[in-house]
Design goal:
With 507 residues, the chain is an alpha/beta fold. The chain has helices at residues 53-72, 84-87, 92-103, 112-124, 162-169, 177-190, 210-223, 237-248, 252-256, 269-283, 295-304, 316-327, 332-348, 350-353, 357-369, 381-391, 399-411, 430-446, 478-486, 489-495, and strands at residues 4-11, 15-24, 28-38, 77-82, 108-109, 132-137, 142-148, 151-158, 204-208, 234-236, 287-290, 455-462, 466-473, 498-503. The protein has 20 helices and 14 strands.
Length: 507
């Protein structure tokens, strides 16, 4: 069955964007295209809410270009939504009429709560979040959403977007002390009654939208962070305070030169940063996790999961791992058997490694993904697997977990790791953790050398100074035994004891 394609168009106050997803319903999906254009639709909007002709023209031209691309790409489903600027426009109807007449495109204008809801869907289906809050700072508005047990509780929308605040409060370059004080007071007053936004046990704060991602990229560059992806990146309030100070004393030209900051956002970034700082101060949050997914992805998930009771993945991590594996055309039967053997070793060696459910889960995911590097090339495929895990949109994991899974996939074949791997992401204890788990994955891989699922079970005997593994198989596994024994040096190093793998053929 060939994949369908869906295009999700989001007309915002600052930017209009489109993503294209290829998918089979409830089975797999992948991002295949993305395009954006800065339109500043809310620029110069009058007190009576009338959008100006020039910004409307820019928006229509961008949407015409997107629609043309959809037609030439033979997109099956086009879903277009609009947010704050069009929602509040008194001439909304005339814009929608022009859009339909000139382009033939229908667009749904979201309410503030709907905008918050779709941002929540994008986050909850892609990050390790159960309870907490989602902040989305756009060009015209800011949405704050409360999440409990992965469910949408409530969401509010305030007219506190980066573009709107910049136009209203910032005239000087750099901003004057008086303007900054006035801006800060306005933001504080706007969110003063948001008494349900507060930190607590197991409360995760997640941020999305161009402003928050831009702030994260600035911090990312400053830290020389070893993982490129912003999705799942953690920005501390302390770092944010430093960034706000830098932005406040810089001219626009100086801001344009800040590493990690897109020039198109240099004029409005400070206003958005002040909003985020106020919300983190108010809720007493020490850090915020960044989501690379938001409203557009949320709209897609509603479409992709439309036959489910709720548009939520039951297990974000497991689905994402399989989704990546399918994209890389993995050998499913082989991966499943390597996973079974790895977990059998893990369970029977619990007295030696002392790990728990968390490590067991990471090992299972690494086992499913260990061979995906063959999608690039057989040679050095263990290194290619690591690259794909780190650089693909693996969802539901922290950066530390992604680094651990990536290293495990690299170790499945040969080699070792050093203490310098992913500095700033991993903890000191993770080197030993990876070596022990990686040694189990490597043994399981070579016991599946023929990829014929010949080894169906194993029994582990733990002795004071060695481990004996007895194999039960259907068929001749002499090659598997030979290869697994000669590839067991990592096990010897990690567990500080010898190992023997034996097979007693049925007579």
């Amino acid at each position: 069955m060939s994949d369908q394609q869906a295009a999700i168009i989001d007309l915002g106050s600052n930017t209009t964007r489109m993503i294209v997803m290829a998918y089979q319903l409830r089975h797999h999906f992948r991002l295949t295209g993305e395009i954006s254009e800065t339109v500043r639709l809310a620029e110069g909007v009058r007190d009576d809410g009338v959008l100006q002709a020039t910004p409307m023209h820019r928006a229509l031209e961008a949407l015409k270009m997107f629609h043309t691309l959809c037609q030439s790409s033979q997109i099956d489903h086009v879903i277009a939504v609009a947010t704050s600027a069009l929602r509040e426009a008194s001439n909304q109807a005339s814009f929608l009429y022009a859009l339909k007449r000139e382009i033939g495109l229908d667009m749904r204008v979201l309410s503030g709560e709907e905008e918050a809801y779709y941002g929540y869907l994008g986050v909850i289906n892609s990050l390790p979040m159960t309870d907490g809050f989602v902040i989305d700072i756009g060009g015209g508005s800011t949405e704050v959403t409360q999440v409990a047990d992965r469910s949408f509780v409530q969401g509010i929308s305030q007219q506190m977007g980066a573009v709107r605040l910049k136009e209203r409060f910032v005239q000087s370059d750099p901003i004057s002390a008086k303007e900054l004080d006035t801006l800060e007071r306005a933001v504080e007053e706007a969110f003063a009654e948001l008494d349900w936004l507060h930190t607590g046990p197991r409360q995760t704060l997640v941020g999305l939208g161009g402003t928050i991602r831009a702030l994260a990229r600035i911090d990312h560059k400053r830290r020389n962070y070893p993982i490129e992806r912003i999705h799942g990146y953690v920005l501390t309030r302390r770092s944010l305070e430093n960034i706000v100070h830098t932005l406040a004393v810089s001219t626009q030209r100086e801001r344009e030169a800040i590493p990690g900051l897109n020039r198109d956002r240099a004029d409005v970034i400070l206003a958005g940063a002040v909003v985020l700082r106020q919300l983190m101060r108010q809720g007493k949050f020490a850090e915020i996790m960044i989501s690379g997914q938001g409203l557009r992805e949320g709209v897609f998930y509603e479409h992709f999961l439309r036959h489910e009771p709720r548009p939520l993945f039951a297990d974000v991590r497991a689905f994402s791992v399989r989704n990546l594996a399918y994209q890389c055309q993995f050998d499913e039967a082989h991966a499943n058997r390597v996973c079974e053997l790895s977990l059998s070793l893990f369970d029977q060696l619990a007295a030696l490694h002392g790990f728990g459910d968390w490590e067991r889960e990471l090992l299972s995911h690494a086992a499913i993904l260990h061979d995906i590097g063959k999608h690039i090339n057989f040679y050095d495929h263990h290194k290619h697997s690591e690259f794909l895990v780190v650089n693909s949109p693996l969802q539901g994991f922290t950066h530390r977990e992604i680094a651990l899974i990536a290293l495990l996939t690299r170790l499945h074949r040969k080699g070792d790791i050093s203490k310098r791997e992913y500095q700033g992401v991993l903890q000191r204890s993770d080197v030993e953790r990876v070596q022990k788990l990686g040694s189990l994955l490597r043994i399981a891989e070579y016991l599946e050398r023929s990829k014929g699922q010949l080894v169906h079970s194993l029994q582990v005997q733990i002795q004071p100074d060695f481990v004996r593994i007895q194999i039960e198989a259907t068929g001749d596994v002499s090659v598997e035994i030979w290869d697994a024994n000669r590839r067991s040096e990592l096990f010897r190093k990690a567990f500080d004891r010898d190992i023997t793998i034996v097979w007693l053929p049925e007579s």
